[in-house]
Specification:
The protein is α+β, with helices and mostly antiparallel strands. It contains 17 helices and 24 strands. It folds into 4 domains: 167 residues, Beta-Lactamase, CATH 3.30.450.40; 169 residues, Beta-Lactamase (2-Layer Sandwich), CATH 3.30.450.40; 138 residues, no CATH class; 113 residues, Beta Barrel (Elongation Factor Tu (Ef-tu), domain 3). Helix 7 packs antiparallel against helix 8. The chain is elongated.
Length: 681
């Protein structure tokens, strides 16, 4: 061990020794004239401060120094307005009852009489602040050590608060009658529940008030693992926190010994398997006193009979079921009478937890509880009401199975003419004129839309120019050949053959140019879009959609439908419902199943129709997922009944009759299919 480490350990032991002396001094036997000077002397020695003052409230609320040490060495007396500045510091602590620091860069909101670091901590009597301990610490104190000074001084002032309380109230515990009234209420509360967590919560929270300690924890075995069930002051237990895990580890090492563990500031003569977990937990929690009491299962009320052969009674080893853990944060020694109260309370806690554990270990306990509640509720007239309800439920269930009802597949769609044409753009171009309006009647061949293609016009003019050029070239070659035929030159035959070849080439070029001209003229003619059949323009706002708009070849410009011919329904049936239709067609050996439909504008009128066909592919739908288009034929009589309601694209809802099914399946078939689709493996 190095010299610095040895010195650090000696300093730590000296501080702990002084803290124990202050704790021993605060038990209430010492008079005030002796206590506070001794308290201040040890406190200043422990923190290495040069001076300090204990201020106490007097009659009328005046604040006077009870004792002081080293104040003359700080320059306090010579500082201007020292008492006024210090009074402001004391007033804040008296008002809020909180420990704080001033000066030394800690707080700059209030000036201090000197450049020392002022550490002030309250002395409390219940909730009232009756005094303040003021420590003058050196201004060059390491900022990292200051929180430790504040925490230590605050803890020591807790002992002074205890001393003041004991001096005012006396050192005797509460009257026995009060304790036994509290204990009786505690025992009754323990027996109110047979749920382990509820019993543990009562043992932790109410037990802390009865034993008068800082914290109680209850751990219970779950199988072979010890788990924390309740901690006083906490609604739930966070088993992931370091403190809870370390406490569970400590308790799991103590309870197998069947002996209680008491830590009061010293780890002496402890087994190694307990010493390290205890040290880890003390370091994490900061507890000054820890007591772990093993909890045992209840002993049988009737002793077992002696063995017939040996004549000896069988030895039954009590089973450990958990641990009762008591902690004190500020004091290392148990308060007077606390051990006796703890032993008394732990016996009752052990019995209640044992009963709750036995109860919860019953096989299928939730089922028996539910049956018990049902049986208890079926008394008197309630039984007859229950039987009536059961009879009604059975009757409904039988009806859902026995009664047959029409099963119909529903689909939403549109009312459309059978004869309809989509008008395409035969050539690429720009719309220059729209000759029709939405809803206008047209005849076959009527001009609908006029397009313009400047590129085609340019190509056509170029071809016309080429045709003129080739025609003139051909005429010139023919004239040359005629003149050569009249000539008697020796090479006339050779030149004539050459001209004949050029004439043939000119003829071919002219024919090709004319073919190109005919093709371009046909393409230009196709820029005028005409009605493919008589009917009504079904696309609304055609002029707004197409006017001055460029279009591509094959693009749909508008629709022409013939409402004077047959009409039909185009229903979108969900893909997963299509199987019912196909099975019905196969069952009845016919394709034209009966259909009943209504218009959205006249939902009170139901009209008949016949199934005509089913699309061979499904398409995606935002509402239904995937749908199949089903075509339903409307008879002339139904068409006549519709009258003015016969409108292109009118919303309809149709139901396709797929035969008889159980009433239960008709009503709840969608639920059955949903479960089948979602839970299919």
């Amino acid at each position: 061990m190095s010299t610095s480490t040895a010195e650090l350990n000696r300093a730590r032991e000296r501080v702990l020794a002084l803290a124990r002396q202050i704790e021993d001094l605060s038990h209430g036997e010492t008079d005030e004239a002796t206590y506070f000077p001794e308290f201040l002397k040890r406190l200043l020695s422990a923190v290495g401060a040069p001076a300090g003052v204990v201020w106490m409230k007097g009659a009328g609320g005046s604040v006077n120094p009870k004792c002081e040490q080293g104040l003359a060495l700080t320059g306090y007396r010579e500082a201007p307005q020292a008492d006024q500045l210090n009074a402001g510091l004391l007033t804040e602590v008296f008002q809020n009852g909180q420990s704080t620091m001033y000066g030394g860069g800690e707080r700059t909101d209030k000036p201090t009489p000197t450049n020392h670091l002022y550490v002030l901590s309250p002395i409390l009597n219940g909730k009232d602040c009756v005094g303040v301990v003021e420590v003058f610490q050196r201004p060059d104190t390491d900022p990292r050590a200051r929180p430790g000074y504040l925490q230590f001084i605050e803890q020591m002032c807790g002992y002074a608060s205890r001393y003041v309380k004991l001096r005012d109230e006396g050192t005797q515990e509460a009257p026995p009658a009060d304790f036994w009234r509290e204990f009786n209420r505690f025992s009754v509360d323990l027996q109110r529940s047979l749920h382990i967590k509820e019993v543990a919560a009562t043992a932790a929270n109410d037990g802390r008030q009865l034993i008068r300690c800082d914290r109680i924890s209850v751990a219970v075995f779950h199988g072979t693992q010890l788990r924390m069930q309740a901690i006083s002051g906490q609604e739930t237990v966070n088993r992931k926190s370091n403190a809870v895990r370390l406490l569970e580890k400590l308790a799991s090492k103590v309870v197998p010994t069947h002996e209680p563990l008491m830590y009061i500031g010293k780890i002496d003569n402890l087994p190694p398997q307990i010493e390290q977990p205890l040290a880890d937990y003390i370091q994490e929690s900061g507890a000054r006193c820890v007591i772990v009491i093993p909890l045992f299962a209840s002993e049988p009320l009737i002793e077992r009979e002696p063995d017939k052969k040996s004549g000896k009674k069988p030895i039954v080893k009590r089973k450990v079921i958990g641990a009762y853990i008591v902690e004190q944060i500020t004091e290392s020694r148990p308060k007077p009478g606390m051990i006796d109260r703890l032993n008394l309370v732990s016996e009752h806690v052990s019995t209640s937890l044992s009963n709750a554990q036995t109860h919860q270990n019953l096989f299928m306990l939730p089922v028996w509880r539910a049956l018990g509640r049902v049986t208890e509720s079926l008394r008197g007239r309630t039984l007859y009401k229950f039987l009536a309800i059961v009879f009604a439920v059975v009757a409904v269930a039988v009806s859902l199975i026995v009664v047959q009802w029409d099963y119909r597949v529903e689909g939403k769609g549109r009312l459309m003419p059978v004869v309809k044409h989509e008008v395409f753009a035969m050539e690429e171009g720009q719309v220059t004129s729209v000759k029709v309006r939405g809803g206008e009647k047209v005849k076959k061949g009527d001009v609908l839309v006029v397009l313009r293609n400047d590129e085609l016009d340019a190509k056509l003019k170029q071809v016309d120019s080429e045709i003129d050029e080739y025609s003139q070239s051909q005429a010139t070659l023919l004239n040359q050949r005629n003149e050569l035929n009249r000539s008697s030159a020796p090479d006339a035959a050779v030149q004539g053959a050459k001209l004949q070849g050029e004439i043939a080439a000119a003829v071919v070029k002219l024919e090709i140019a004319k073919l190109r001209q005919a093709l371009l003229e046909r393409q230009v003619a196709q820029l005028v879009v005409r009605a493919p059949s008589s009917g009504v323009v079904a696309t609304f706002h055609v002029d707004q959609l197409l006017e001055n708009r460029p279009v591509q070849r094959g693009e749909v410009l508008l629709e022409v439908m013939d409402p004077s011919k047959d009409w039909r329904l185009e229903l979108d049936v969900p893909d997963y419902r299509l199987g019912h239709i196909l099975r019905a067609q196969d069952k009845f050996k016919k394709q034209d199943l009966d259909v009943e439909f209504v218009l959205a504008t006249a939902s009170e009128t139901k009209l008949p129709a016949k199934l005509e066909g089913i699309s061979t592919r499904s398409v995606p739908s935002e509402a239904e997922g995937s749908v199949v288009e089903v075509y339903v034929k409307i008879s002339p009589e139904t068409k006549k009944d519709l009258g003015e309601l016969l409108r292109i694209g009118a919303d309809v809802r149709g139901k396709i009759n797929c035969g008889k099914q159980m009433l239960g399946y008709v009503l709840f078939g969608d639920v059955v299919e949903f479960i089948q689709n979602r839970l299919w493996f």
